[in-house]
Amino acid sequence: MTTSATGLELRDVVAGYGGHPILHGVSFSVRAGETLVVVGPNGSGKSTLMKTAVGLLRPISGQVLFGEANVTTLGAPARAARGLANVPQEANIFRNMTVLENLQVGYEFVASHSAPSFGKRLDAVLDLFPEIRAKLRSTAGYLSGGQRQMVAMAAALMPEPSVLALDEPSAGLSPRNAEILFEVIGRVAASGVTLLIVEQNTRLGLGAADHGVVLVGGRIRLAAPAAEVLADPDIRRLYLGGA
Ligand SMILES: Nc1ncnc2c1ncn2[C@@H]1O[C@H](COP(=O)(O)OP(=O)(O)O)[C@@H](O)[C@H]1O
Ligand SMILES: [Mg+2]
User: What are the residue boundaries of the ABC transporter domain, all occurrences included (predicted)?
Assistant: First the structure.
């Protein structure tokens, strides 16, 4: 699955709730075809950043650029129609529908008449998620946590987006299942999709990324190639439990 690769950029974004800022001037860009992971402690503003990036939250100031376009004032459906897919942290599947129905909803939510057929997209997506190929007729809510995350990602990928945003994909998973999920995320990245991931598991997240951003208290503390962030002594001491 190769798509026209489009990057995503935040420029000096101030965002929060009820006029109270949580993000205090955040800037970074994910280049087309690359994976950027935002790590940081609980409450540091990661989900707020993600909501701003995908159009669920209008920033107080600053800009969001998707490819060449300034999408700051566009809501999430309009950004989705342009190829920005989003898997939120919670409630990201229809639990009482089958896996196949979830994929149909994902496709119909965005796909235009010029899009590849449902069958073609289903094949391409299931190649990335062989674990759920055998589960198409299962009720999504009865799958394991890791499989439910795969269904959520697969549904978001059905309309062939250029950028996929994932908020805490490993949340609630056992260490082993989180590892498996990040292997799958690596496959999605290798397929050419640009990834913006917010992840509390610093080691797993950065291990899957080209670039890392450390968000603390709504401010970027460090932005560098992921390997450099992983090797940073302060980051190791604070978030990786090592000296
Ligand atoms: N809908 C909301 N209304 C008001 N405050 C919120 C809302 N969502 C998050 N917050 C606050 O914003 C801060 C950052 O939250 P969040 O972006 O969810 O952090 P993270 O995802 O890094 O854990 C927290 O102090 C949280 O209480
Ligand atoms: Mg969060």
Answer: 8-242
32 Cα to the center of ligand 1, angstroms: 28
The residue whose CB lies within 8 Å of the most ligand 1 atoms, and thus the one to mutate among 17, 26, 42, is 17
Ligand nearest to the CA of 17: 1
| C-alpha pair distances (Å), 219 with each of 40, 62, 65 | 10, 14, 19
Indicate if ligand 1 lies below 6 Å from the C-beta of 142: no
Q: What is the pLDDT of residues 162-191, one digit of tens each?
A: 999 999 999 999 999 999 999 999 999 999
Q: Give CB contacts under 8 A, 24+ apart, made by 54-58.
A: 54/79, 54/84, 54/86, 54/165, 55/79, 55/84, 56/86, 56/88, 57/15, 58/15
Q: What is the mean pLDDT of the chain?
A: 92
Radius of gyration over every alpha carbon of the chain, rounded to an integer in angstroms: 17
Domains in the chain, ordered, with CATH?
8-90+163-239 (3.40.50.300)
- For the CA of 41, the closest atom of ligand 1 is 22
Q: How confident is the model at residue 115 (pLDDT cuts 50, 70, 90)?
A: confident
Please report the atom of ligand 1 found closest to the CA of residue 89. 21
- In angstroms, the CA 50 to CA 2 distance is 24
- Residue-wise pLDDT for 222-237, tens only, equals 999 999 999 998 888 8
Mark out the alpha helices in 71-174 (DSSP H runs): 76-81, 99-110, 118-128, 130-133, 145-157
Tokens read off for 147: 């499989």
